[in-house]
Amino acid sequence: MEKPYKNIFILFIIIAILIFIGFYQTYFGLFPSFKDVKLVLHFHALVLMTWIAMLIVQPILINQKQFALHRLLGKISYVLAPLIVVFMLLAYQSQYERAEANGMPHAQALGLLFAPFTDTVPFALFYLLAMIHRKNVAKHLRYIIATGLIIVGPALGRIGVILLGMDKFSAVLTVNLIVVFSFLTLIIFDRMKGRRFTVNPFSIALMTFLIPNLLLYYVPATPQWQSIAEWLVKTFF
How many CB atoms lie within 10 A of CB 127? Predict the structure, then answer.
């Protein structure tokens, strides 16, 4: 573990706390009845909580030189990460169906289906890059950190809307700015610590996150996306 990142597990603990706060009213606070919560959302929550737990535990294992156990948990991620992607997509399907059932205009509901490009696709890409570079500790670490910054976004959005009374547009914009600022901070931190890359993994993560989140303000309402989304609904839903 690089010395500047040996306490990175603290960031993941903070992310876990933010996720608990953000989803308390709509999920965790519904325990034990979980009234009207679909089974797929339970699995979605389970795999994500497991991922966060792994993010916290893995750097601690490295610090304690428990390399064998670290590698074992890493192999478990080969199953866990694809499950996260699948259940993220299923959660978005559930969101679309709920929007339709609640009377949201059809075009607006179809626009919701662009959302996986803003977090599910980046998560999958960051995990894939982390595994490709699993023998390059510096790159592997940074792509794993990026997965944590991606999955905290929905929780931050809910904190903005539910706890701070923000409208959805302002909440999404604020979340995007926080995530972008986080990546920029990490890039600057690496430079300050003299860590040089041909291309910093955090720079790749930043662009991977930023591009679809900028397109989110334009693409969902276009006829082209509406046609694609309509095909997705008819084919897979």
Answer: 23
